[in-house]
Amino acid sequence: MPHLIRLFRDIFLRLVVVFLAVSLCSFFALDRPVLRDVYNASTHFLDFLTGLGKFWGPVARDVLSGYARSMILLISAMAAGMLLGVPLGALVALRPGSIFSKIVSLISFLGILTPSFLLGLAVMVFFVLYLSRYIHIQFILLRPGGNLLDPRYIIAPALTLAARPIAYITHTTATALREQLGQDYIRTAQSKGLTPRWILWRHIRPNVLPTILSAMASSLLFSLSSLPVVEFIFSWPGVGLQLLNAILRNNATLASFLLISVGLTLVLFNFAIELLSQKIDPRLQIAAE
Amino acid sequence: MATTKTDTVNTQESLQGQFGANTRQRNLWNDAFRRLIRNRLSMIGLIIFIFFLLIAVLGPVIAPYDYRVQNLDRVAEPPGPDHWLGTDDLGRDTMTRIMWGARTAAIVAIIATSMSLLLGIILGSLGAYIGGWMDTFLSRLIDVTLSIPSLLFASLIAATFRKPVADWVDAMYQQTGLSIFATTTYADLIVVFGALAFITWPGYARLIRGQILSLRQKEFVEAAVTVGAKQSRILMKYLIPNALGPIIVALTFSFAGAIVAESSLSFLGVGVQPPQPSWGNMISDNALSWRYRPWLVAAPGLTIAIISLAINFLGDGLNDALNPRTAIK
To answer: Could you report the predicted ipTM of this complex, rounded to two decimals?
Structure first.
């Protein structure tokens, strides 16, 4: 139980800090002189706290709809990261020195480094120039009434958002797997005459899985960071774009709640990852007991 | 007694014979420099990086045009002999604006990394030296700040603090009349630096805290304490040189990160404001006309990509050179 208490304390502290930082920003709320603001800070902060009830007004609808739309992108990006990154990384680690693994390593290196707005523009150019004539759709400018669950709309922003998770998870999987392949227990297992598939599944997988899970957590952080850029480029009306608009329109309440919703997502996801890795990793179970 | 002495002399002579009479002094920095030179990719990175810094310093002198002047006779020209990278929709020379953008990026990156390094050194060493509840509090703060999506948070900070800072600069200009307060350009840059420093300090703090804690346990530091070396000597001769390598590597990587983050913020419109040129706002200004005038987007975009790749190669090379034991082959 103590690790659960520690996790809840972490969650609580994280939320408090996100909340305080957001409310700190909200009383610099954009249109008032800074010195008078310091004087008004305490009352403003109280206003902010008591105004939490107003959340279930028009702000709630904006936040929730934007949140749902961003989740579509994030979930598909993370799913692509897992489904492509892990097998690619495993292939790279199992065939060291081959041309395939060199190419994949180079691409994943570039994918980690490329700024998301450049990648977004490149994806946009590629789709408009080469793909839109086959799929008969304008990829970039999403019409307000468009069906957001249509995969043809999702694919371009989700691809941009997924680039970094795919690259990072590939890289991490390859590194972790290569490190495990050099360990003594692999040689022992091989000399016992176990098949390579059995070794990979029963001996290596439990050792690599916690690393991959933590790589997932940090790639969600990357994706959330580049969310405003990607949504801005593809006019996707999610949390990031709404946040930018709220900032430009001096709507501090909306901005605060959007940021809190993002922080909450991250905290809950990290919590889930931590619980999962405690289930999987025997070392953590022993440490917790 | 006598035999021991001759032994020593012999050993010394044989060593001198082996390495030559006047061997160059081997220390960490010489070795690291030799290893760095041998790494071809990171030398290319170093050359590009030095070129970038030169442009940032000399750009305004060697730039062929003024970055603000609009030549409406020559609007949206493709690259040609007069304008090597073409002109934008207002007839401003793209190459000049990229040179000035290099200066903006360099100023922001240098000041943001040094600010966050300063914060990281202060908070990290505070946690490591004081320990106890202070360490717990600071480590928790580091964890929390690292877990906030950086670009969202930086854009919120940059956007909310711009107006108060601009008001403050205006008020200062009213009161003092100093020319430095006449424009809000500097205020803009301060806001961007602040936002970037605020999201990047925890990396340094964690690194420095870890370095100090692990180095204090090392045998050579204990030996120095045992033979009675002064605290300042231990700090200068043992702790700092050994901690410097990882910090320099982290500095290099976060320099590239700061350049990319500055251009991302400017791309979103919450960073450096026009007419001050920045690679990010050059891209967003011209993003809508990429189909007809692709060079306007490609020039700043490729510049950012090349600079960030070059600095990352340099950082990899420095990592291999300065931390040979931990570098993964």
So the answer is: 0.71
